Predict the structure of GNAT family N-acetyltransferase.
Amino acid sequence: MEIIENGFIFSDDSNLIDVNSVHHYLSTQSYWAKGIPLEIVQRSIHNSLCFGVYKDDKQVGFARWVTDRATFAYLCDVFIVEEFRGLGLSKKLMSLMMFHKDLQGLRTYTLGTLDAHRLYEQFGFKALAFPERRMEIIVKDIYLK
């Protein structure tokens, strides 16, 4: 899938992803993956359904789904580089990802966010209906050790 809109390319082709750009953003600018090693980013891209946003052959956005493509999908590592924020790129990226052919009819779609609740609510995400049924293990600052 590739869509061109207002000079931006939105694509699910993992071959287009600039892994070094994604790594740079995640390791230096994200709040969730500071210090993440390049090898971990490479492996995460290889094992996920990834989407990129590009402008003039430059990676300006990224997101990935961790999914079995049958029952669940976990959305993570969503970002638009700062100079391109406020142009509606996140919303366009989300709409393409939510309607991707490999993600239809799943039982559970989930994500975690610190500050983008309003964006994700537009696509049907809500607070956990049954938080007492969810458990997690979080290894805090795993990449900063």
